[in-house]
Structures are given as structure tokens and as C-alpha cells.
Amino acid sequence: MGIVPEGDTKVVCGVTLRRDPAREPCYHIVHLHRELEALHLELDAGSSLRERIYRDLNAEIQTLEIAAQCLVDFPEAPWELRLELARQCWDEVRHAGLLDRHLQELGSWKGEFPIANLDWSVVCMLDSLPARLAVQHRTFEAGSLDLGQVGVEKFGESDDQKERELAALTEAIDADEVAHVRFANEWLKRFAKEDPRTVLQVASAMRWLKQVVEATGGVLDHTVPTNVGDRSLAGFTPREIAETQRLERELAGELERSKQEIADASGGGNEN
Description:
The protein is 69% helix and 4% strand. The protein has 272 residues and is mostly helical. Strand 1 (9-12) and strand 2 form a beta hairpin.
């Protein structure tokens, strides 16, 4: 991973990652998503909604930065792909602006909540463009399609106007994200056809991602329902979608067993 400039790294949980992108002094930076999740669970309903949108806003900014960094790090990439990445930068700027406006309407401000830039720190350590497309687009952004669907369904049925507006906004953003995931899928297939080393680069990146997730205490796959419709539009095959659903069920089973073990250990499963 020699593409990262010397000194432009940090160590988190024993793993070397790319140093955080620049942020204004008003922002409190944490290194792990689980720190944000712990905070989220402690907030009241109004604050938790703002924190969720706040996190989404920073995710859009990171995605913009990742796409822009790809343009810088891989100037030899095909022009058509560079154009797709440049268009993505424009999309992400627009998304960030929409989310920021919605946050201001809810009374939020810069620096209200901590942020984590783990997506940037992970993806921008990878030294090949196929590896970055596999991790950022096929994994992180595809996962956001699943989460987005849950948000649209949950907030779309709310009695609160601002929550319904968030559902509509999320749906509009996800329409762009489908296109981002789709161009990555298409280019990865093209790269693999032209150069068999692409398969090895992607496999190596996914193994490394798994190691990072395990080291940082995160979860690579989540229990939210797989967004079959959007994943199909984004170029995933029926077999790939079925595998995502299998992993979803597997993880859900593991989480349920863990909850039961905790309950049993604490005496919650005993009858008095």
C-alpha cells in the first residue's frame, strides 16, 4: 500500500490506516463507528434524529473525498471512469448540501456531534483503483442502499413532517447512489476481463477489510434487510444478492444467540 504518502497514516486498534481528512477545529473526531453508536443510544428522539443525519452528512463528504482522491491517485485510469468519478463528486456535494440544509432546519450546527472518518481512512489506504471500487462502492455504498431503504420506510410513515421530508431526501440520494454502485460494478467486470490481476486485488482488499473490521470491533455485514431492488439496479447478480441475504440471516442468528447468552449469564433466562 505504498501509494499513501509517508507520514500520512495513523494507527487504530493496531491497524495502520490513512490519516483523517482535514476538518474544521469545531469538529470532534473519533476513530471508531462504535463510539458514535454508543452516543446515539444515549440521545433523546430529537437529538438521535439529528445525529443520524449528521453522520450521513459526514459520510457524503467522505465519499466525495474518496472519489476525488481516486482521481488524484490514479491519473492513468480510463477517461470514462475518471468522468464517472468526477460526476460522483458533484453528486456527493449536492447530497451534502441537502443534508446540511435539513440539519439547519432541525436546529443543528457544525460540531454538535462527534464524527468518524473510518471509511476514508480504510479506503484510501488501498493502492489500486479496483480495490477501492470494491470496498467503497460495492461494499460501503451498497450497504448504504440497504440502510437507506429502512430509513425511507421508517420515516416515510411518520406523522412528523421533517421525518417525512428526510424519507423523501434519502430516497432521492439513494437514486444517485445506485448509479455510483452500478458504474463500479461495470468497471470491475471490465477490469477483470482485461487483467486477471484485478480479481487478486479485489480479493486482497476484501481480506484486509475483514481484518480491519475485526480489529476495530465493527460489523462488516448488518442485519438490516437487503435492498434487493436497488442492488439489482446497481448491477449485482441474483447470486450475489442471495449471498448478501444469506450473510444477513447468518449474522442475525449470531446476534440473537449472543443476546440469549447474555440474558442467561445475567439470570434473565431463569424462572423464579
